[in-house]
Write a structure and sequence with these properties.
The protein contains 15 helices and 24 strands. The protein is of the alpha/beta class. It binds ligand EPZ. Ligand EPZ binds next to helix 2, helix 6, helix 7 and helix 13.
């Protein structure tokens, strides 16, 4: 069965009655008083997009795994619950995650969890590789439109998974994975991770041509090597995995979150402040550093620290998102907030997600002047923004609204802040420690 095509149009398949209603999310809001330049030091948390695949990868090797520097986020807690539903024991305390995958008792990752976080699909490859079988809910769309998983499924299918779509679930039965040559015309972080994990226990060799280079992928590869996997070409567009019989548990530390770090850099830039990021990876921030330097920031870095001082008024810039090491799409919205008060007209093009612009009407509510033409936004910088009630729609859109609110005159109220909590650890407390005025209130 052509699973890829079915996965592409998954919204067409008649889903089975969801087993349980997705858990109600706490509806907090943030109230910000704008106009205070940020200053001080901020600790960068572990990376969400590195922690999620590593947590799923623990399913490949029976035993007790130790993950350190795991960010305490709604999303990492969701992944912990998905793994627990499969039977693993998870202890998540103070950024350390102990995961015991000795006794996996279920093969199903249910709709009620997967529908709240797309990355839950990362358990599919490891489950099929270790047990030959799995039943994982298809992830739905997201705030800004369909996000297909055809490359994940086509890759696993090429390795002999013979997946079926059954009432909204991806089902694999008694598959014995074997190596395959897989070529991606589109660079996909998720599909690269999925196939790399599955290939570690496949019979023979798998080659991924067009692999993603994101630091989260290289870090996952290094963790798999630590488990005893055989992988070559990490950090290149061609990754080769030689399957092995079994893997051993890991003790690893999650890399710093480059998107959180870049977001705080933009916060210094937009407020004209000066902050030092601690425990970050400046190498992973090159594209952002280049654009913010063009906008007039002074940036210095050494080892795991980076100091940024923002200009009195940022200069207009041109930004085009690209797969790593290009400019990250996960910083597109935050850069748009910065450009909304820049001196001149900026142009931002998103080549990864052509419709990732749900933040535009909300920034316009704060007084930004943005014209959208398909995936190209032209932003005419205004002298000042005005506080107003706005609504968060996804993780990075909410970060952009926070940045704009830091400089908007008066009070801004951002509702549905659970989106922010999915990807940023204690952002309100970190901002207040840098001199901002942010209050969290119950809606
Ligand atoms: C990862 O998503 C990140 N999520 C996203 O960050 C990030 O925006 C994205 O990579 C791009 O950098 C996590 O790591 C958990 P992709 P992923 O597969 O893996 C198309 C955040 O805010 N595609 O690299 O889902 C896809 O539509 C999140 O932290 C297919 O066509 O992204 C997109 O245009 C949001 N078929 C492009 O590839 C597929 O099967 C890149 O997507 C898979 C992807």
């Amino acid at each position: 069965m052509d699973v890829g095509a079915r996965a592409h149009t998954h919204s067409g398949s008649k889903p089975s009655a969801p087993t349980a209603k997705p858990k109600a999310v706490p509806m907090d809001a943030l109230i910000l008083q704008g106009g205070r330049p940020l200053s001080g030091r901020v600790h960068v948390s572990g990376a969400k997009n590195a922690a999620l695949p590593v947590m799923a990868a623990t399913l490949l090797a029976p035993g007790q795994h130790v993950l350190r520097n795991v960010p305490s986020l709604a999303d990492t807690r969701t992944m912990a619950r998905v793994i627990e539903r499969l039977g693993a024991k998870v202890e998540f305390t103070d950024h350390q995650c102990l995961i015991d995958t000795t006794n996996i008792t279920s093969l199903e990752a249910p709709y009620d969890l997967v529908s709240t976080m797309r990355a839950s699909i990362y358990v599919l490859g490891p489950m099929v590789a270790r047990f030959g079988s799995a039943r994982v809910s298809l992830p739905g769309g997201c705030a800004w439109g369909p996000r297909p998983v055809n490359l994940h499924l086509e890759g696993l299918d090429a390795m002999g998974a013979s997946l079926e779509i059954d009432h909204g679930y991806i089902v694999a039965k008694n598959a014995r994975l074997r190596g395959a040559s897989i070529r991606h015309e589109v660079v996909s972080v998720g599909a690269t991770a999925q196939i790399m994990m599955a290939a570690t226990l496949a019979e023979g060799t798998t080659v991924i041509d067009g692999a993603a280079l994101e630091p989260d992928i290289t870090a996952l590869g290094e963790v798999l090597l630590q488990c005893g996997a055989r992988i070559e070409g990490l950090g290149t567009r061609t990754v080769t995995v030689h399957g092995v019989k079994s893997l051993k548990p890991i003790d690893t530390t999650i890399i710093p979150d480059r998107i959180e770090a870049a977001t705080f850099m933009a916060a210094a830039a937009i407020t004209g402040g000066s902050i030092t990021l601690e425990q970050c990876a400046p190498d992973h921030l090159r594209a952002t550093t280049e654009r913010l330097t063009e906008a007039g920031c002074l940036i210095e870095s050494e080892r795991d620290q980076l100091t940024i001082s923002g200009p009195v008024r940022p200069a207009a810039v041109t930004v085009t998102t690209q797969p790593y090491p290009g400019f990250p799409t996960d910083m597109q919205a935050q850069m748009m907030a910065l450009c909304s008060i820049a001196d001149g007209e900026s142009v931002i093009t998103d080549t990864i997600y052509l419709d990732r612009f749900t933040h535009v009407p909300e920034l316009a509510r704060l007084g930004a002047d943005i014209r959208l033409d398909h995936n190209v936004a032209r932003i005419r910088g205004v002298k000042s923004l005005q506080g107003a009630p706005v609504m968060a729609t996804d993780i990075r859109a909410s970060a952009a609204l926070v940045l704009a609110a830091l400089v908007a005159e008066g009070e801004t109220r951002i509702s549905r802040i659970y989106h922010l909590d999915r990807g940023y650890e204690a952002m309100d407390q970190k901002l207040n420690a840098l001199g901002a005025s942010v209050r969290r209130v119950k809606e």
